[in-house]
Amino acid sequence: MLKGDDVIIRKDLAGRWYNAIFSRYSVRAYDGRSVSSDIRCEIGQLLDGFSPMCKGARAVLLEEGSSEILSGFMGIVGRIRGADLVLVLIGDASYPDHEVAVGFLGEGIILHATSLRLGTCWVSGTYSRKAVEARIKLRDSEKVMAVSPIGFAKRSGQRVGERAMEAPRVLHKRKPLESLVRGLPMEDWPSGYREILESARLAPSAVNRQPWRFTVESDRILVSAARFELLPMAARKLDCGIAMLHLEAAAGATGIQGEWNLLSNPPGIAEYVI
User: Dihedral of the CA atoms 43, 47, 50, 52 (nearest 10)?
Assistant: First the structure.
């Protein structure tokens, strides 16, 4: 089990990221404006991690090449265009939980960018790996697992009076919390459990599959990968890492202290011990 104050997301970051959970959405159209050097520097401080839960993952912020990297086919929603920066998320396969670490690290950075009023979008399959690898030197055990554009969301040309309307948000439905949890009945949950589990429920995931399940006990919450999923286990573990970041940020913001215990028996991923 990870122990000590240094394993907890800093309280100021937890509160900031918790608020960002409710305003984050996937942005695919950007206006091309440059992100200031001060903001780039602030994001840069998170790239190597902010918790031991990030061990096995690192991130690189690319300041050029977004049009080549994000040129993949995006289906009916279209390609991602106009982003100033590209966040590249890298896992080190020599660590057994690197997929979880990538999700945890990446979502912390993405929520931080959201708090700075920047747009983002998790992209795990429809980007050019060749274009990424041409710009980043990877170690032998490393692999690129996902990217995200970072920039200012494009606004539509339509105006109401003098106010420009923001481009429509790409919102996704989420499964009801009741379908994602088991264990202790909801009426017996300790104070604050519903808030942190609702925050985890809002986490983004590949094709919005929400491949996580939570088992609630009086002193812990177990995070598991959903069974019988079409997504490979690596993708499910990455998505569970994203949900775990939401869970811990919400716990920290609402005054609940806990520690992560990583598990080695899939589909069990980790337990948050209160």
Answer: 170
pTM of the shown model: 0.91
Contact between residue 9 and residue 272 where contact means Cβ atoms under 8 Å apart? no
Which pLDDT tens digit goes with each residue over 98-120? Answer: 999 999 999 999 999 999 999 99
The structural domain count of the chain equals: 2
Q: Are residues 235 and 133 in the same domain?
A: no
Q: How far apart are CA 19 and CA 24, in angstroms?
A: 9
* 44-to-53, 220, 244 alpha-carbon distances in Å: 18, 33, 22
- SS3 at position 123: strand
Kindly state the helix (H) or strand (E) to which residue 233 belongs, with its residue range. helix 233-253
**Sheet arrangement for strand 57-62:** 57-62, 85-92, 142-151, 119-120
Task: Give the angle 170-115-118 at the CA atoms, nearest 5°.
Answer: 55
